[in-house]
TrEMBL record:
It is a multi-pass membrane protein. This is ABC transporter permease. Belongs to the binding-protein-dependent transport system permease family. LivHM subfamily. Keywords: Amino-acid transport, Cell inner membrane, Cell membrane, Membrane, Transmembrane, Transmembrane helix, Transport. Coiled coil: none annotated. The chain crosses the membrane at residues 6-27, 39-57, 63-84, 96-118, 138-164, 193-215, 221-240, 247-265, 271-290. It is found in: Cell membrane. The keyword Signal does not apply. Pfam families: BPD_transp_2. GO terms for biological process: D-alanine transmembrane transport; L-alanine transport; L-isoleucine import across plasma membrane. GO terms for molecular function: L-isoleucine transmembrane transporter activity; L-leucine transmembrane transporter activity; L-phenylalanine transmembrane transporter activity; L-valine transmembrane transporter activity. GO terms for cellular component: plasma membrane.
Amino acid sequence: MTQLIWNGLFVGSFYALIALGYSMVYGIIKLLNFAHGDIYMLGAFIGFATLSSFGVIPASMSITALLIVLLLTMIITGGIGVGIERLAYRPLRNSPRLAVLITAVGASFTLEYGVSAIAGPNPKVFPVRLQGETFDVLGARISAPQIVLMAIAILLMLGLNSYIQRTSMGRAMRAIALDSKGSLLMGINVNKVITWTFFIGSALAGAAGVMAGAYYGKIDFLMGFIIGLKAFTAAVIGGIGNIKGAMLGGLLLGLLEAFGSQWLGGEWRDVFTFAVLIAFLTLKPTGLLGERVTERV
């Protein structure tokens, strides 16, 4: 039982990092950015390329190198997210939502097959593979890399929540989520806030991509597709548009997957996940926190 809970929370922390981007963008411009999962994939490949350029990295320096590459990747993927918003989404901001949605799907395919054309279609072995001792905690086997990666994920999520709640930019994001036209009349630079939102969401997805590559050891150009859909599921469970809901939804989805795989078998994991998505969309489309939280981002 303890092992299942730990496994679920660990995987769920990845889902939560990516779901935050979905929720932030949807909360402000009501866009389901289906290219967001591919930003995660792009982060993994940027980390792969950067670490490969370092040559052979001693095991004692792997954590340090990974943290440096993580920060660099966050900046690059954040910039790419801003570029996608500026080129693909902003010109269609006043268009029907279906047009923007189709554009998001097109951006997703562009990223996937653009990376495939550049890096090749075959899976890549990540240059740094985190390894370390394992500990027995209340009957669960927990490895040192899992602790490090989960600590990074928690710090990023807490940092984002603090940023949203305590800074002027965070207040502007919340104001636009409530009333974008009113915010514009009050003098808030809506375009700047939306740009910053895409930067933060994409940076978090890029960080998750590097962490996944270092932990699982293998990346490919389609790795963002399924996890993007699962992050969307997590955002729906928590209440899409709600920051705390995205975190809660990610962790809850990880736990549901862990217990569902244990009861039904690992081959049913994805089926179980999307059955949960359908159930929430049917029975409670606002998600767990959708009704209780009035300020949305």
